[in-house]
Amino acid sequence: MSYFIKIIRFSLPYKKFAFLNIFFNILYALFSALAYVAMIPMMQILFGTTKKTYNQPKYEGISELKSFVEEFFNFKVTQYLEQDAGLALLFVIVMVIFLFFLKNIFNYLAMFFITFLRNGILKDIRNSLYNKTISLPLNFFTEKKKGDLMARISSDVLELQHSFLSILESIIRDPLTILFSLIVMFSFSTKLTFFVLVFIPLSGAIISQIGKSLRRKSARVQNEQGEFLSILEETLGGIKIIKAFNAQNKFVKKFGKSTQRFFHFSNKLLNRQNLASPISEFLGILVISGLLWFGGRMVLVDQTLSGAIFLSYLGLAYNILTPAKGISKAFYNIKKGDAAAQRVLDILEAKDDMEDTSESIGLKHLRKGIKFEKVFFSYGNKSVLENFSLEIKKGQTIALVGPSGGGKTTVANLINRFYEIGKGQLKIDDIPINQIKKSDLYQLTGVVTQDSILFNDSVQNNIALGNPLATKKDVVEAAIIANAYGFIEKLNDGFDTVIGEGGNMFSGGQKQRLSIARAVLKNPDILILDEATSSLDTGSEKLVQNALENLMKDRTSLVIAHRLSTIKKADLIVLLDKGKIIEKGTHQGLLKKDSFYKKLVELQTF
């Protein structure tokens, strides 16, 4: 229930729809009871037991309202009976139809307004999940599978719609329907109503027992759905490798095992869920059967209840059973939805250790430089940087080289504050990086990576990603600087061409030049180039290298490279191995020594 309360807090912006729903549900419940009461005069006419009233009654206050309404009805029916029995019957039937019409109109209006409430909650939950996901640090995503996160945002939210939010329609209506029906039933017969009330808690207890294991079973289903979505995401992302290594059968088996588990868990969940309806139906028949026996004796043996009232009473009893089943189903759905709600709240309530505080400092431009002071960093138990110290002055180009796994990309990630350092200090303009506002830090930095990440949007919007206020002229100038204008102009729609998912319609060099144009337009103070040319052919590399040199002019740059030909002009080359600096100097200076860098250069062809 605690998860349900946390989800329902999303309803606050839509409270006006909740109040309107409550208002029309009250009217629905009231007219639902009155509709069955109005059937009593009809049955009295049919049985010939109508109480004749020739004097029009007077209203004497709310305490006598029941007697007044009953006598007024009898008075009108008596008038019609004096003229024609068929006319009296028609009058009563019209009244019953009118009351049922109002009941259903109010029911529709109640559901009309609850629709805005339900869909508004769903919209806000999805938006909150997406916003939270975007804001969480990268280490959160290293611990979660992408497919599982997608399942939480998509299928788990849908499960909330089918479980938690589906009960909003009945959470007010059903209890009120039961309440108003019970009030009328008590006015008919206290003894008979107490007999009915014995069965309701008994039915609830039985339904509760069925629902106890639902949360655990539902959690298994949700987790397994996240598992096979993860496999699907991996398959689509690595389809070339899967085909190239003839590994289709391996992934088919892996996916099949996951869907088989999903099939097994879903069967258990749905079979338990399917018990609710037949059991509640059977319990309802037991109640009606008990009423027929107990109430029938009151009519036929004790003669303490009239037949017409008893038949109307049976209608009211049935009017109670339907919402009672709805309440038991709501309880059942809450249990079932708990697992999905917990998975959703795991993201919404995930702790972000990198959130800005009231003391965070704004930093619009780099004025001095970047300093690593005895920094230690680990991924879990794996140490990546040890006692790492480095100063990057404003306007300098620093190159990081060395074997794979030496910690080069980690240095870049720490400057972006994708991760928090373990020990030591990382300062920008003498301000510890964890004290700088994240939005300002991200605005200071621009990144061009080995894998050019483009989005399913127009060329112009991809280039203007970091500068949404840029004009078409600005975008064109950035493309020219990045040596991308030539191939963009040849596209069917030019800068308005939608590039498709991942930009697969372009070559590697073209995608990289679009990424560089994006960095040019953002105009960052700090530029990070992470293996920006390593996956390109010689022709593309030359074009991209020229674009990078244009981008790096008068800018503080950190270049990570395996191709040493691209870093000859760096102000300082730093050789990293196993998280430690083993050499540093200029290209020429390191070549004059018998250095590890010189050996790397000799292994490569310029």
Which features does this protein show?
606 residues, alpha/beta, ABC transporter transmembrane region fold, Rossmann fold, 6-stranded mixed beta sheet, 4-stranded antiparallel beta sheet, 23 helices, 10 strands
What does this protein look like?
It is a single chain. This protein has 2 domains: 2-348, ABC transporter type 1, transmembrane domain (ABC transporter transmembrane region fold, Up-down Bundle), CATH 1.20.1560; 369-603, Rossmann fold. Helices cover 62% and strands 10% of the residues. The chain has 23 helices and 10 strands. A hairpin with a 2-residue loop joins strand 9 (572-577) and strand 10. Helix 13 packs antiparallel against helix 14 (307-348).
